[in-house]
């Protein structure tokens, strides 16, 4: 996990990850000015060290003298190459093209003298400023097969309804220096753009990641061969917004995915933030459907203690209850509350932690877990499992803003469809690491976001208007992430 420090902590933009000498090298776009490609490195996927910046905008008259946009780095015959999006002042920054830089060590980069190496071809793509005032040709990524290097680029088809003209353009090269523009690689015809496209192969199938602009989600497609046809799975969402720019990278025998998260505020101070999220492992089902699973090796790297089982006896004797009837029967903790909400907290205060429990509902319409909570869960983070809606939702509950506010402070941060069945048990995991919150159901990451309204608090269970059972509870503490964090809740700005 990584947040770029500075006056405005929104500087981290689109990312690219490459493995070299068993280390992860991540390049990211500085989006405040779109003028720098920054570089960080990690040995475990969780702790990152800043390295010298890789690229900067060019001198006046060069192909990238206005801005630099998203890039992709790849090895080829003993050297490293970086394709990147370049914008020139001569085009008023509105005609996107492809630039190229070369390195022998991933640290020192040299742009090729024949930049730009590619631009939209009017035979297939929108290539001038007449149609929409901007020609899209950005976010290059690489897939190498045999002796051919393929690059995939976010572009527009030259014809068709504007809101469905977004496509994946295609470049090929035999030497990594000179590139040929090919007809469109994939044309979904559902969005104005199919941003940050990337291809990888898993279990004999090809996968294509991309971001569509309405709704604002990142999706995937499946094919049996690189040339397609590409098919859309029934549930094609990778993670809910604001998770974006998913980048695949094989590391230590596992296919990993990396992405950034962007929200409009860090806390109630109102400052926008983007962060590089914890990596995840991608797995494919027999039918080709993908799921993301927690990066266990990474969480182990930030754990300060081993997992500790918490017995039902300990929960009832050392914890605190607020309403509801809570009883232990062997390894099972049974709770019932009607009407309204009953709460059972574990002992202690928890800031950064990893937590798991198995839950099943007897007849409670809503139930789940609270964390960073006060003694009554009036101010807390809350994972709600709502059977009637078949969703898991991450809520933030906070105090009333001022005397003129109506009702309690409530914000739904994320929601995701999950198939619940009455009486069927499921395993819940919450990893809270500084502002980053990752939630898994039965081993599949379903929610991931960040919020820093409360730094610490209690962990526990809640039930509303019914009964549920909890068992096999365990928890461990994590280190505090090495970043500038608020010391506690920041009061909301008063509304006049």
What does this structure look like?
- With 496 residues, the protein is mostly beta strands.
- The protein has two domains: 12-299, Tachylectin-2, Chain A; 303-477, Exo-inulinase, domain 1 (Jelly Rolls), CATH 2.60.120.560.
- It has two helices and 33 strands.
- Strand 13 and strand 14 (205-212) form a beta hairpin.
- 44% of the residues are buried.
- Residues 488-496 have low confidence and may be disordered.
Task: Output the keywords.
496 residues; mainly beta; Tachylectin-2, Chain A; Jelly Rolls; 2 domains; 13-stranded antiparallel β-sheet; five-stranded antiparallel β-sheet; 33 strands
Instruction: Name the average pLDDT.
Output: 91
Structural class: mainly beta
Question: Taking Cα atoms only, what radius of gyration do you get, to the nearest Å?
Answer: 24 Å
Mind telling me the CATH superfamily name of the largest domain? Glycosyl hydrolase domain, family 43
* Uncertain segments: 488-496
Share of residues in helices: under 10%
Task: Estimate nothing, just give the exact number of structural domains.
Answer: 2
The major sheet is characterized as: 13 strands, antiparallel
The fold-level CATH name of the largest domain is: Tachylectin-2, Chain A
Strand content: over 45%
CATH-defined architecture of the largest domain: 5 Propeller
What is the tally of beta strands? 33
- Briefly, what CATH class of the largest domain? Mainly Beta
* Dominant shape: elongated
For the record, give the distance between the C-alpha atoms at the N and C termini, rounded to a whole number. 37 Å
Q: How many H/I helices?
A: 2
């Amino acid at each position: 996990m990584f947040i770029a420090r500075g006056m405005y902590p929104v500087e981290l933009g689109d990312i690219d990850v490459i493995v070299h000498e068993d280390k992860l090298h991540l390049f990211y776009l500085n989006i405040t000015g779109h003028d720098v490609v920054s570089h960080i490195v990690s040995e475990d996927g969780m702790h990152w060290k800043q390295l010298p910046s890789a690229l900067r905008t060019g001198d006046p008259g060069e192909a990238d003298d206005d801005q630099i946009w998203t890039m992709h780095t790849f090895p080829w015959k003993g050297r490293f190459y970086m394709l990147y999006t370049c914008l020139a002042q001569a085009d008023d920054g509105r005609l996107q093209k492809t630039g190229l830089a070369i390195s022998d060590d991933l640290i020192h980069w040299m742009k090729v003298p024949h930049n730009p190496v590619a631009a939209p071809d009017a035979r297939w793509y929108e290539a001038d400023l007449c149609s929409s005032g901007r020609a899209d040709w950005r976010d290059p990524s690489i897939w190498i097969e045999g002796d051919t290097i393929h690059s995939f680029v976010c572009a527009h088809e030259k014809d068709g309804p504007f809101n469905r003209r977004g496509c994946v353009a295609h470049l090929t090269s035999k030497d990594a220096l000179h590139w040929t523009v090919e007809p469109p690689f994939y044309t979904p015809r559902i969005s104005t753009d199919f941003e940050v496209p990337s291809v990888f192969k898993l279990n004999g199938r090809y996968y294509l990641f991309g971001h569509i602009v309405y709704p604002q989600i990142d999706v995937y497609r499946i094919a049996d061969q690189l040339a397609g046809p590409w098919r859309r799975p029934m549930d094609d969402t990778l993670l809910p917004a604001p998770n974006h720019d998913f980048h695949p990278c094989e590391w230590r025998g596992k296919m990993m995915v990396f992405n950034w998260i962007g929200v409009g505020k860090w806390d109630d101070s109102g400052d926008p933030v983007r962060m590089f999220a914890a990596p995840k492992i991608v797995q494919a089902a027999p039918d080709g459907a993908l799921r993301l699973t927690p990066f266990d090796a990474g969480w182990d790297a930030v754990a300060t203690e081993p997992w500790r089982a918490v017995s039902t006896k300990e929960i009832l004797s050392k914890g605190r209850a607020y309403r509801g009837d809570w009883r232990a029967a062997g390894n099972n903790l049974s709770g019932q509350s009607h009407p309204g909400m009953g709460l059972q907290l574990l002992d202690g205060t928890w800031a950064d932690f990893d937590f798991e429990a198995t839950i099943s509902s007897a007849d409670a319409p809503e139930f789940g877990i609270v964390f960073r909570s006060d003694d009554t869960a009036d101010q807390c983070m809350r994972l709600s499992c709502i059977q009637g809606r078949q969703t898991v939702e991450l809520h933030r509950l906070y105090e009333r803003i001022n005397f003129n506010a109506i009702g309690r402070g409530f914000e739904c941060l994320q929601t995701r469809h999950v198939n619940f069945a009455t009486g069927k048990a499921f395993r819940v995991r919450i990893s809270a690491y500084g502002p980053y919150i990752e939630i898994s159901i039965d081993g599949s990451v379903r929610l991931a976001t960040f919020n820093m309204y409360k730094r610490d608090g209690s962990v526990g269970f809640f039930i509303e208007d019914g009964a549920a059972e909890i068992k096999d509870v365990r928890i461990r503490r994590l280190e505090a992430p090495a970043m500038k964090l608020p010391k506690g809740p920041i009061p909301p700005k008063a509304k006049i």
